[in-house]
Amino acid sequence: MSIQNWSESILVVETMDDPQFTDDLDALSAMVNEKTDQDVVIDLSAVNSLNSSNIAKLLKVRKQIAISNSHKLRLCGVNTHVWGVFLVTGLDKVFDFADNLAMGLASVQIE
């Protein structure tokens, strides 16, 4: 599993393409339900495509984080193709993004 506790209050998820991506999002969802006091940074740099199921799972995780524990979710390292999916679906206005993992971690800690 590529989910790590970066600190006591931040989870880092380093994802890959499917099927690993789907498994990671399912595991993350379960972890967020159990431990509600953490911000989440998802590194999408190794993800080359998103499907509707992945998008639905990302939205579910976002909702869990925002509603149940008022913490932050940051997506980072989004490549051009995946960024196009976020733009076309309008989700570029729903999620918060950072250029890379280091920037994502910094932005979560600053806010």
Explain the overall architecture.
By secondary structure, this protein is of the alpha/beta class. The chain has one domain: Transcription Regulator spoIIAA. It contains 4 helices and 5 strands; from the N terminus they run E-E-H-E-H-E-H-E-H. It has helices at about 20-35, 50-70, 80-90, 100-110, and strands spanning about 5, 10-15, 40-45, 75, 95-100. It has a 5-stranded mixed β-sheet. A hairpin with a 2-residue loop joins strand 1 and strand 2. Helix 1 (about 20-35) runs parallel beside helix 2 (about 50-70). The mean pLDDT is about 90.
Task: Provide a short characterization of the protein structure.
The chain is of the alpha/beta class.
The CATH superfamily is known as STAS domain
Q: Going across the biggest sheet, name each strand in turn.
A: 1-2-3-4-5
Structural class: alpha/beta
Averaged pLDDT: 89
Number of domains: 1
Order of helices and strands: EEHEHEHEH
Radius of gyration, taken over Cα atoms and rounded to an integer in Å: 13 Å
End-to-end separation:
28 Å
CATH fold node name: Transcription Regulator spoIIAA
What is the name of the CATH class? Alpha Beta
Residues in helix, %: 40-55%
CATH architecture, by name, is 2-Layer Sandwich
The tally of beta strands, per DSSP, is: 5
Low-confidence stretches: none
List keywords for this structure.
single chain, five-stranded mixed sheet, Transcription Regulator spoIIAA, 111 residues
